[in-house]
Specification:
Length: about 150
């Protein structure tokens, strides 16, 4: 299947981009996606960059979190690709990554918890869903008490 923009849309699960924030989040998100049996998965970790201030977390630490997140997803999807983006705008980074890897859809789990975990909630979630050029899949949360 090609991802050309003609009258026949590609299978929504052909190549899913999976933005994740942490190792635990990555495992939970991959587990939520597994029953839908996507053909290809690319895991995305966005390293948030500050503007004119030191990065919110040191890049080396963020890259370690990314590596742990990718490893967690590979326990569910052994052939998953990974993609690390560096950006101040998380939603834009997700769209750019989806474009770069040729994703057919973006799948995410709504997040509870701290700042990084909330990057797909509130205004950002709304922007992700309303501004995407490809389908956005909100995966169900198995645990509602987070």
């Amino acid at each position: 299947m090609s991802s050309s923009h003609n009258d026949t849309p590609t299978d929504i699960l052909e190549h899913v981009l999976l933005p994740v924030a942490t190792e635990d989040d990555a495992l939970a998100t991959a587990t939520a996606l597994k029953p839908y049996e996507p053909e290809q998965v690319t895991v995305l970790h966005v390293v948030e960059k500050g503007e004119g201030v030191p990065d919110k977390t040191p890049v080396a630490q963020s890259e370690e979190v990314a590596a742990e997140s990718y490893a967690a997803v590979r326990t569910v999807f052994p052939d998953a690709d990974d993609h690390t983006a560096y950006s101040r705008n998380v939603v834009e980074a997700i769209f750019d990554a989806a474009d770069e890897v040729g994703a057919s859809a973006i799948a995410y789990r709504s997040r509870g918890g701290g700042r990084l975990m909330q990057f797909l909630s509130g205004d950002l979630s709304l922007k992700l869903v309303t501004n995407a050029a490809i389908p956005v899949i909100a995966l169900p949360r198995a645990d509602s008490d987070e």
